[in-house]
């Protein structure tokens, strides 16, 4: 049966390539500053999170510190059809797929250990993001994607050096594991599953400048990671399964972030961040079936993104502090008529508006706990994916997400 499945697998892959869930980089997840919508992350270090967010800021940590965080990330993707036709057509409302998003539990752990008044070491295990999208096998775009689960985990080993009372530098070595499981339903009797993983390595550079005790600046640069997810493409035709070696590219962009922290008085502090993300590297997604050399391509045509966030801390008492922030991130797709043609249902992208809030409780001099929530308006992107035989998937999304979590800091 394999000699029948092989040409079918190639032909299906060439017209309906398994894609990757892109545009899921949420730096506040790893930097633990969702309560200020990402503001200030490279300038401050209140626990051990600087081992991830800015290794140079580890110079601010005076004691050996352990930080742990538990979070829930809830993604909502609501698709409304607006005239799909051909193989994507149909008048039944259930074909729209409902809410394709879902909730994901997340966790991270960080440790910083000062070696002297100059040197500090750090270790972090965190994630920049991921997604879990499930439209079901009977929605109108199931031949493009039924479901996708993308997971990324980073381990950062960092070192910082305090040059003098004002300047500090840092270097982090990054190893990231990415995995993906994606399914497609071509017909009621023909489906596929692509499962793959990849490990890539990069660096995280940091610079920190202390103007005085109440005013600090931070700059961090994370290198891009170009994953090649290698695994199995399995085609199920009426219960007959053929398995083929395949590989798929996944881009994690380079990121430059600058942040500031400014104490206005004993109660109020202002925080800000400016970011650039190198999403223009994500021009296409390419699947290669290794046994045949055939490859398929989906154009992405993304551009770099920019973001800005502004936050505040309000010290209510010695033990309690309130936090708030807002942020904006540009879309990786240009605002033109071709925008909808470059969307894909793995995760349609648009501008992002962030609103975060939280509270920190200092139980003792060596233990504190932070509670935070963040709402992300992911926009209303339009999609017009044009397939073969004059088929088109035409519709609009209403997307948002929420993050809730708790962080604990121990000093010892």
From TrEMBL:
Residues 1-21 form the signal peptide. This is Outer membrane protein transport protein. Coiled coil: none annotated. Belongs to the OmpP1/FadL family. It is found in: Cell outer membrane. Keywords: Cell outer membrane, Membrane, Signal, Transmembrane, Transmembrane beta strand. Its main location: membrane. It is a multi-pass membrane protein. PANTHER family: OUTER MEMBRANE PROTEIN NMB0088-RELATED (PTHR35093:SF8). Pfam families: Toluene_X (PF03349). It comes from the Bacteria. Transmembrane segments: none annotated. The lineage of its organism: Bacteria, Pseudomonadati, Pseudomonadota, Gammaproteobacteria, Alteromonadales.
């Amino acid at each position: 049966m394999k000699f029948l499945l092989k040409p079918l697998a190639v032909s299906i892959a060439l017209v309906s390539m398994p894609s990757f869930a892109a545009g899921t980089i949420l730096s506040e997840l790893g930097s633990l500053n969702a309560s200020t919508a990402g503001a200030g992350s490279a300038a401050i270090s209140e626990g051990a999170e600087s081992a991830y967010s800015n290794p140079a800021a580890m110079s601010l940590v005076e004691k050996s510190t352990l930080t742990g965080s538990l979070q829930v990330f809830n993604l909502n993707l609501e698709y409304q059809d607006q005239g799909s036709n051909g193989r994507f057509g149909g008048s039944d409302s259930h074909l729209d797929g409902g809410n394709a998003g879902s909730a994901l539990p997340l966790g991270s752990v960080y440790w910083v250990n000062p070696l002297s008044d100059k040197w500090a070491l750090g270790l972090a295990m965190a994630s920049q993001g991921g997604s879990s999208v499930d439209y079901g096998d009977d929605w109108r775009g199931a031949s493009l994607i039924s479901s996708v689960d993308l997971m990324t985990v980073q381990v950062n080993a960092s070192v910082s050096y305090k040059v003098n009372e004002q300047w500090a530098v840092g270097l982090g070595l990054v190893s990231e594991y990415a995995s993906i499981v994606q399914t497609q339903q071509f017909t009621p009797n023909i489906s596929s599953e692509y499962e793959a993983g990849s490990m890539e390595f990069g660096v995280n550079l940091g610079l920190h400048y202390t103007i005085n005790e109440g005013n600090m600046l931070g700059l961090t640069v994370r290198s891009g990671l170009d994953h090649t997810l290698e695994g199995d493409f399995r085609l199920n035709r009426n219960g007959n399964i053929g398995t083929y070696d395949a590989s798929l590219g996944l881009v994690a962009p380079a990121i430059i972030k600058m942040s500031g922290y400014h104490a206005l008085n004993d109660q109020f502090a202002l925080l800000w961040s400016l970011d650039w993300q190198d999403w223009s590297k994500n021009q296409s997604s390419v699947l290669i079936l290794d046994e045949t050399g055939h490859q398929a391509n989906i154009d992405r045509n993304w551009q770099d993104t920019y973001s800005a966030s502004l936050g505040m801390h309000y010290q209510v008492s010695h033990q309690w502090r309130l936090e708030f922030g807002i942020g904006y991130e540009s879309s990786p797709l240009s605002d033109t008529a071709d925008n909808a043609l470059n969307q894909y249902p793995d995760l349609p992208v648009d501008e992002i508006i962030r609103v975060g809030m939280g509270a920190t409780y200092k139980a003792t001099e060596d233990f504190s706990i932070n509670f935070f929530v963040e709402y992300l308006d992911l926009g209303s992107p339009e999609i017009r994916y044009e397939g073969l035989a004059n088929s088109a998937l035409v519709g609009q999304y209403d997307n948002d997400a929420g993050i809730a979590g708790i962080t604990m800091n121990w000093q010892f």
